[in-house]
Design goal:
The complex is a heterodimer.
Chain A: H1 2-14, E1 22-23, E2 34-36, E3 39-43, E4 49-52, E5 57-62, E6 69-76, E7 79-85, E8 97-104, E9 120-125, E10 137-140, E11 146-150, E12 156-162, E13 176-180, E14 183-190, E15 193-200, E16 212-218, E17 239-242, E18 248-260, E19 263-273, E20 279-290, E21 293-296, E22 303-309, E23 315-318, H2 348-351, E24 362-365, E25 375-379, E26 385-386, E27 389-390, E28 392-396, E29 402-406, E30 410-414, E31 425-429, E32 435-439, E33 455-461, E34 464-469, E35 479-483
Parallel strand pairs in A: 1-5
Antiparallel strand pairs in A: 2-3, 3-4, 4-5, 6-7, 7-8, 8-9, 10-11, 11-12, 12-13, 14-15, 15-16, 16-17, 18-19, 19-20, 20-21, 22-25, 22-35, 23-24, 25-28, 26-27, 29-30, 31-32, 33-34
Chain B: H1 2-11, E1 16-17, E2 30-37, E3 40-46, E4 64-70, E5 76-84, E6 102-106, E7 109-116, E8 125-131, E9 139-140, E10 151-157, E11 163-169, E12 171-177, E13 189-190, E14 204-208, E15 211-219, E16 224-231, E17 239-245, E18 258-262, E19 265-272, E20 284-290, E21 311-312, E22 324-325, E23 330-334, E24 344-348, E25 354-361, E26 369-376, E27 380-386, E28 389-395, E29 398-407, E30 415-424, E31 428-436, E32 454-456, E33 472-476, E34 479-480, H2 491-499, E35 517-518, E36 521-528, H3 535-540, E37 549-559, E38 563-573, E39 575-580, E40 583-588, E41 599-600, E42 604-606, E43 609-619, E44 625-631, E45 642-644
Parallel strand pairs in B: 21-25
Antiparallel strand pairs in B: 1-5, 2-3, 3-4, 4-5, 6-7, 7-8, 8-9, 10-11, 11-12, 12-13, 14-15, 15-16, 16-17, 18-19, 19-20, 22-25, 23-24, 24-31, 25-30, 26-29, 26-31, 27-28, 27-30, 32-36, 33-36, 33-37, 34-37, 35-36, 37-43, 37-45, 38-41, 38-42, 38-44, 39-40, 39-43
The chains are: A mainly beta, B mainly beta.
Chain lengths: 484, 646
């Protein structure tokens, strides 16, 4: 019983650590996350940016010359194209803007290859015209065409086309107005649609910043970008993607990062994080797609869950003897005038003594709200993470018994969580809202990182879980996590 | 003026100067002597200024020398000052008498020869300064050349291996000199005794195909021509042959010159008071080509604006430096009389007026864009042609100078003569033209003029647009209400704010008259060109102060019959409040952006006849605007009414 209380305490203590990126992720107007030689980079306003070795723990140290505002970065071939604006906008101007691009072979400032090319101007606005050329965003379209959007609340958001070889503006390319009254746009492409994500509201007012991210979509890159009720973003349309959270305010500067088919992340900043002195912080969330619209997914919060297979809807459980619950009576014995009583469900203490002491295998069965089907998922502090999330432990609720990967790509539970890598789990919310559950390592195998060949929790039969290849197109690889 | 000159000099310090005539376009230059050193043309010239001291203010005034160089006679580099009057040991430090110079090279040394007023005594002596490079630094000898009194030195290194010095003293003089020009090596002789009468100065002697040419400014009539005589010997006797250049029609009294062969062609360098029409002692150097007859005589040179060299079509082609101009209905003028170095424009007054500019290099690729800087009170059309290429361009009226970039289907390549003719309109003023490859910079409409957003309401009642937006409004000029942030616009604040009285008849049935005033502020009846009414541009066209404003607006919706169950639907940046027929219809608080159908009123009824709509919008640091329409029970726009501001 004492042990149970101990775990309940941990849940509260750890809750904060899994709500945001850790380290020193302080940034304003982060660029789309870029990967270079196994590390992740994002650049911010004013020069510099953040680096992360695992995508969860972020530190300063990225280098971008030119200062100015709101950069973006895109990898094209084996080079990185970095865009930024040499000017800074602001509520009261000035509003003469200039978008510049430059190349680098690497984003790693320690690399001998690290050298930016001379910046070239790709868009310009003069003082007081109905556009302010800051807040650049790049998109490499499905046809290999490179586009760039820019602009702020000061007039129109504009689209121009760049030469993917030089990073310069295509000769003779005329800017197209695609939205009004927003800023910090990002253009993305998915399954025949171009999506314009835009930041509405007011920035730079700390916990009162009203920044929020909305979206419209178009079959043509030049628009019209319409929202879910058909309103053109040139008339202020937009469907919400993410707004303020309970303790984080001012969501802005969307960026999309596709990890692999079915696994996508979105980066943004919150202008103020109440748990970090109200500073502006980097946030990375799962990116979901529902009915053709992007939505912000959620990081798993520490808590008690049932883990249900998407294959049949069976629950992951310990492979232990089924114990009949007590109380109640068959329906034919019910008498209408009998007073109602409330029966207790089966408790851990009712059954745990009958469980084996050592490792116990896992299996699946229909959910019966039995203790061997109830799990606690908790972020593990200081265990690092992956892009946008920490490693979790998955234990039987009220116990220390932990799900672990075992030699030979098998699954088991160990009697006590030790912090070993095989007991750490990567949990990604997939683009359809379901979850992929991956062990950090599988004993006897190479590092189990996301990507082709990675192994995750799968249903090989309705009742038989295993570690198998991830395939987004198969429900065998997907899980629902439901609070109970 | 002096400050202006200094400013111009600072801007162009060691900059490359592009040129037609005059070739130096940021300072006065005169008395040019051009020499070829190391494959480049080096121009040694007097440097006219407006004298800072009396009595030279109305006279020639020159305190130092610059040298310029060019590899193509078109682009000139100013190498800066090479000698100042303070640095001549024997010269008067405030003499302002650094007149026409020359420079020659011998055994790797550059000998710069110049007149100056001696520290002691009167008149002019001629001195020498030596350097290891054509652009200096030059160090002046301690003493002037003994026995030489006068101006306009010229040095000839003749094919006989000897060095000769010429100058203008008591007549045109010449003598053999030592190679280092420390002193004469022979007795001076007078060269002009057999030449026609009239004032002469500025001798320039050169040798070509066995002939020696004595060329000189000569007052045949009123002002100086350039004349020449020929001889078989450096020191004559010289036989008069005629004029190289006639006197100038607009009475620049002096001319002064040199001839130089460069890359197989001969060029005449001379000067004219192009940048100083009112004061002919501030002059500017020009170049035109020189041709010789087979017998060695010189064909007369007609001064041109176009000058020499080839102009890239991708540069700004200064069409006012034309090769030819129609005889009537065209004229030349300074862009700014107070700032002559800004250059000229050409005015084509009537259809049929034309101007031609020769030798424009279009390169291998036809351009895609024509940029033109122009001004015209009326819409004009021009035809532009070069070789086979010809294109017509419409130039919309613009009372101020405007640079317009137009897509050009203009298949010109190689070197062509460019002609521009006025086809329609009148008094088209052209500053320059430039052809470019089609570029993104060509397309930009950065105008924020009021007429792009709002035009005065006129005519009978307006209809809502196809989407139902009411575009005719009576707007009061903005009232200042500074706010740092927009999220202070709470419902409580807004109700208090809009309850205050701002003008008589506020929220009343009778609208203020277009043009009537509320204190300093005026009511304007406008039709919006856009679905939304851009209040910010209303404000920005009135004043620099355009944030933190409260706007009042009103309009009248006229219905043929009662329209029940509609909603007033509004988008506004920022907060706003709306009244229909005196009743509050909608309040939109907080930090708002322009979003179509952001908020809608309760169901209301539009009466048959007049329905008065009032609105007020307040904004802190935003781009204020609003859009208003009525939606029916199905959410579709209502359009069967008309709108007026009466």
């Amino acid at each position: 019983m004492k042990k149970i209380l101990f775990f309940a305490g941990l849940i509260i203590l750890n809750w904060i650590s899994c709500s945001a990126q850790v380290g020193t992720p302080f940034i304003h107007d982060p660029s789309t996350i870029a990967e270079c030689d196994g590390k992740y980079y994002t650049f911010g306003t004013g020069g510099g940016g953040l680096i992360s070795a695992d995508g969860w723990v972020w530190q300063g140290g990225a280098v971008r010359p030119g200062r100015g505002a709101a950069p973006d970065v895109i990898k094209i071939g084996d080079r990185y194209l970095v865009g930024y604006s040499s000017t800074g906008g602001g509520f009261y101007g000035p509003h003469a803007g200039s978008i510049l691009t430059m190349w680098n072979k690497t984003l790693d400032p320690e690399s001998p290859d690290f050298a930016f090319t001379e910046p070239i101007e790709v868009a310009r606005t003069v003082e007081d015209e109905d556009c302010d050329a800051i807040d650049v965003s790049f998109l490499m379209g499905p046809d290999g065409r490179l586009f760039c959007t820019y602009g702020t609340y000061f007039g129109f958001i504009r689209l121009v086309e760049l030469d993917p070889v030089t990073g310069g503006r295509l000769p003779g390319n005329r800017a197209v107005d695609i939205a009004i009254d927003c800023e910090a746009t990002a253009l993305i492409y998915r399954e025949g649609w171009y999506y314009l994500l835009a930041t509405h509201g007011t920035c730079c007012d700390g916990v009162n910043s009203t920044y929020n991210i909305v979206v419209g979509r178009s079959r043509q890159v030049t628009g019209p970008y319409l929202d879910n009720v058909g309103r053109d973003m040139l008339r202020g349309g937009g469907k919400m993607v993410i707004a303020a959270q309970e303790r984080q305010f001012g969501a802005g500067h969307f960026g999309r990062f596709v990890v692999e088919d079915g696994v996508e992340k979105m980066s943004l900043h919150f202008e103020a994080d109440l748990d970090r002195s109200g500073l502006s912080v980097l946030a990375i969330r799962p990116l979901l797609w529902k009915d053709g619209w992007p939505e912000a997914g959620e990081l798993i919060e520490d808590g008690n869950y049932k883990i249900l297979s998407r294959r049949r809807g069976y629950s992951l459980e310990l492979s232990v003897d089924f114990v009949r619950a007590q109380g109640g009576k068959p329906f034919w014995q019910i008498q209408a005038d009998e007073p109602m009583t409330v029966l207790e469900g089966q408790k851990l203490a009712d059954v745990a003594n009958g469980w084996p002491q050592g490792t116990i295998p896992v299996r699946m069965a229909d959910y019966m709200a039995r203790p061997h089907q109830k799990w606690t998922i908790q972020a593990v502090p200081d265990a690092g993470g992956y892009l946008g999330g920490p490693y979790y432990r998955i234990i039987i609720e009220g116990t220390d018994r932990a799900l672990a990967a075992a030699e030979g790509a098998r699954l088991e539970t160990v009697p006590a969580f030790t912090g070993a890598d095989r007991e750490l789990w990567r949990i990604d919310q997939l683009t359809d809202g379901t979850y992929r559950i991956m062990p950090k390592v599988i004993p006897g195998q190479a590092v189990n990182e996301a990507g082709a060949g990675s192994l995750c929790l799968v249903s090989v039969a309705d009742c038989t879980p295993a570690l198998g290849r991830f395939d987004f197109n198969s429900d065998n690889c997907k899980w629902d996590l439901k609070r109970h | 003026m002096k400050r202006l000159l200094i400013l111009w000099a600072a801007l162009h310090l060691s900059a490359v100067l592009s040129a037609q005539n005059p070739i130096i376009r940021d300072q006065y230059t005169a008395d040019p002597t051009a020499r070829v050193f190391g494959g480049k043309v080096w121009l040694y010239a007097s440097h006219d200024i407006l004298s800072p001291v009396e009595p030279e203010k109305k006279w020639f005034s020159m305190a130092d020398y610059h040298v310029f160089s060019s590899e193509n006679l078109v682009d000139w580099t100013d190498h800066g000052v090479i000698l100042r009057q303070e640095n001549v040991p024997w010269g008067k430090p405030d003499g302002y008498s650094m007149w026409a110079p020359d420079c020659v090279e011998k055994n790797g040394k550059y000998y710069f020869v110049f007149p100056d007023a001696p520290r002691n005594g009167r008149g002019f002596a001629i001195g020498v300064a030596v350097a290891d490079a054509p652009d200096g630094p030059f160090r002046a000898y301690e003493k002037p050349i003994p026995g030489v009194w006068g101006i306009d030195p010229c040095v000839l290194q003749a094919s006989d291996g000897k060095t000769y010095l010429y100058w203008s003293g008591m007549g045109l003089m010449g003598a053999q000199a030592k190679d280092d020009l420390t002193e004469l090596a022979g007795t001076p002789v007078r060269l002009d005794e057999n030449l026609p009468q009239g004032f002469k100065e500025g001798p320039f002697i050169f040798e070509r195909e066995g002939h020696f040419y004595l060329t000189y400014p000569w007052v045949q009539d009123k002002t100086e021509t350039l004349a020449y005589a020929m001889s078989d010997n450096p020191l004559g006797p010289y036989e008069f042959k005629g004029l190289i250049m006639a006197q100038s029609p607009n009475e620049c009294w002096t001319n002064h010159h040199s001839l130089v062969q460069y890359q197989g062609e001969w060029y005449l360098f001379y000067h004219h008071n192009d940048y100083s029409p009112a004061f002919d002692k501030n002059r500017s150097v020009r170049i035109d080509k020189v041709l010789f007859n087979p017998d060695g005589t010189i064909l007369p040179v007609t001064p041109t604006f176009r000058g020499v060299g080839i102009t890239s079509a991708r540069d700004q082609i200064q069409i006012d430096r034309y090769s030819a101009l129609c005889h009537q209905n065209a004229f030349l003028a300074f862009l700014d009389d107070q700032r002559p170095f800004e250059g000229w424009f050409i005015s084509l007054v009537r259809p049929g007026s034309w101007v031609r500019y020769d030798r424009v290099d279009f390169g291998e690729k036809a351009p895609g864009t024509l940029s033109v800087r122009y001004r015209a009170a009326k819409d004009c059309a021009v035809s532009v042609s070069a070789g086979e290429a010809a294109c017509r361009f419409d130039l919309p009226a613009s009372v101020s100078w405007k640079t317009l970039s137009l897509p050009a289907d203009f298949p010109a390549t190689g070197i062509q003569d460019l002609k521009v003719s006025l086809e329609e309109g009148e008094t088209l003023q052209l500053d320059w033209l430039s052809f470019t490859d089609t570029s993104w910079e060509s397309f930009s409409d950065s105008s924020t003029a009021l007429e792009k957003y709002l035009v005065p309401a006129s005519g009978k009642n307006a209809s809502p647009d196809a989407d139902g937006f009411v575009r005719r409004w009576l707007l009061l000029e903005p009232i200042s209400k500074p706010h740092r942030s927009n999220n202070v616009f709470t419902e409580t604040y807004l109700r208090e704010l809009f309850k205050e009285p701002y003008f008589p008849g506020q929220l009343g049935e009778i609208l203020p008259k277009d043009g009537s005033r509320v204190g300093n502020l005026c009511w304007h009846a406008f039709d919006s060109r856009l679905f939304n009414v851009k209040l910010f541009r209303f404000a920005s066209n009135l004043s620099e102060d355009r944030y933190g404003k409260l706007y009042w607006m009103a309009t009248v919706v006229h219905c043929d019959r009662e329209i029940p169950d509609v909603r007033l639907s509004v988008g506004s940046n920022g907060a706003s409040m709306w009244w229909v027929n005196g009743e509050e219809a909608l309040l939109m608080d907080g930090d708002r952006r322009m979003v179509v159908d952001d908020c809608a009123s309760e169901r209301l009824t539009l009466k048959k006849g007049r329905n008065v709509i009032w609105g007020a919008v307040i904004n802190g640091p935003g781009l204020s605007d609003f859009c208003v329409r009525f939606l029916d029970g199905n959410g579709n726009p209502v359009t069967h009414f008309t709108v007026s501001t009466k």
